[in-house]
């Protein structure tokens, strides 16, 4: 009986850990998107951030052009499936959470257009900064 209790509480503990880790991945994912949107303002001042930001925007384009999902999306879905398979979702992280928060149905082409706009604005910011690309 004691062994069954240990196994039960270990599985219960792991279940909670998977949920916490999945929630942390969501937080990191939102912070990453925020960085992609506003990173040019920091990138104007710090060259390393600028290159990291440009690389991130390039990676975002590759993901969208080839119809892939971000590795953070895959990680979150995997962690959620370990916690509770009913909490998983299919599709894009952005589409899933924007629909959940704002109740707006987004199409993937809208996200692509928004990425183009953010990239264009970022390059304009970099172009007008003192340190050129």
Automatic annotation (TrEMBL):
Keyword Transmembrane: yes
InterPro entries linked to this entry: DUF2784
Record keywords: Membrane, Transmembrane, Transmembrane helix
Protein's UniProt name: DUF2784 domain-containing protein
Domain of life: Bacteria
Family matches, as Pfam families: DUF2784
Organism: Thermodesulfovibrio aggregans
Transmembrane portions of the chain: 20-42, 51-69, 106-126
């Amino acid at each position: 009986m004691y062994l069954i209790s240990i196994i039960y509480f270990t599985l219960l503990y792991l279940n909670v850990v998977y949920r916490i880790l999945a929630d942390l991945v969501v937080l990191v994912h939102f912070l990453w998107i925020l960085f992609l949107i506003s990173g040019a303002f920091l990138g104007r001042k710090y060259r390393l951030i600028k290159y990291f930001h440009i690389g991130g925007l390039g990676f975002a384009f590759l993901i969208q052009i080839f119809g892939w999902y971000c590795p953070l999306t895959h990680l979150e879905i995997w962690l959620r499936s370990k916690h509770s398979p009913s909490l998983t979702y299919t599709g894009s992280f952005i589409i899933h959470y924007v629909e959940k928060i704002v109740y707006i149905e987004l199409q993937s082409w809208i996200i692509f257009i928004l990425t183009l706009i953010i990239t264009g604005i970022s390059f304009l910011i970099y172009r007008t900064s003192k340190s050129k690309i």
